[in-house]
Amino acid sequence: MFSPPLHRQRHQFVIDFVKRNKPKKVVDLGCSECSLLQKLRFHREVELLVGVDINGTTVKKKMHGLAPISTDYLQLSYDQLRIELYQGSVTQKDARLRGFDLVTSIELIEHLTLADVKSFSEVVFGYMTPLAVIVSTPNSEFNPLLPGLVGFRHSDHKFEWTRTEFRSWALKVCLEFGYEVEFTGVGQAPSGQQEGVGFCSQIGVFRRHGVRDGCNMLLGDDAEDVFSYTLLYSINYPSLRDNNTLRRVLVSEVLYWAEKLKSGWMEERTACGAEMRSLVVQCGRSVSEDQEEEEEDVFWKKSQRQQDSCTLRRCVSVPLDVLWSCCPKISALTGSVSNLRHLLLDEPEVKLSQDGAAVLVNYQEQGTDLEGEEDHNDLEDSGYAEARQDSHTAEQEEDWEANV
Asked: How many CA atoms lie within 13 A of 290 on its CB side?
């Protein structure tokens, strides 16, 4: 009867609210098979996503579908997300659900007895005190338009309110707990009948506008921690805000780009047929001060750090400022060359020069004897000078963001 289906319209209403208001902590009461949570986890403005349902068996069947997928690990961002699922009744208090930005109750309240509705109101609005609450429930005035419907829409429904009854309950909640409410819904009636019957699912959007004295007293009485729910599932999504994750990603990028830059430079050197003894220096060989000053103008210089352990091995030095300027991801992860240096200092997979200003990459080239080469190559025409100039610019701007 509805396109898209009514349950999708209800979920889309919540998603649109999340997009506009960007709540960081969201709990879905009566989460059942976690279908709404499945959609909300992709909106990474949410940092804590919680589901609660009295039927733990139903939750357990679907909860592992909320685990991170491969792209969450391959396309890491600074967004963070934790998901928690609980078994418990919405008529009971649990301190872990206090102070959320948004509470959703989608087609839940009609499954409660009227006595439990009173407890639900006290728990959600009086104890949890979220900034916003979205409650949807069937509109019984719409039922005559549903083909073949006899009685309630579901066998477990204890009641189905008219628009007036829903409004009466909502306004009483606002008066008692300090909220204001806006009435709307999803599921349009046929043309010409909308005003007479309203939406198929009526929705109340509650916003907390202040705390009255009586509500203050209620919060004070319930200040003790109450843990009545059973935790069924919890998972932290990978995030660059986790320092270990950040370092792993950074090391991988540094090693990849250092090898790529080295290979590019070596291919260009080979293509030009240049003699570049100063760019690759055999460890353990003495170099005069004049030669060292000359080699400061090129990217590759002697590895002093490994003189004792690799007398027969040759190393390529890739300056950190070059890595930072050539790789946007490295610059985005670190913010500055100094931060890059700091993050790499204690990483065993990355070998730094003695002054910590460059990454050392093993140089391997078959059939080449650089010891017999006598002259330095002029780098002006090969693009090295321009790259070096860019690296100096990056160094000058490294204070654009002092901390990651």
From this structure: 0
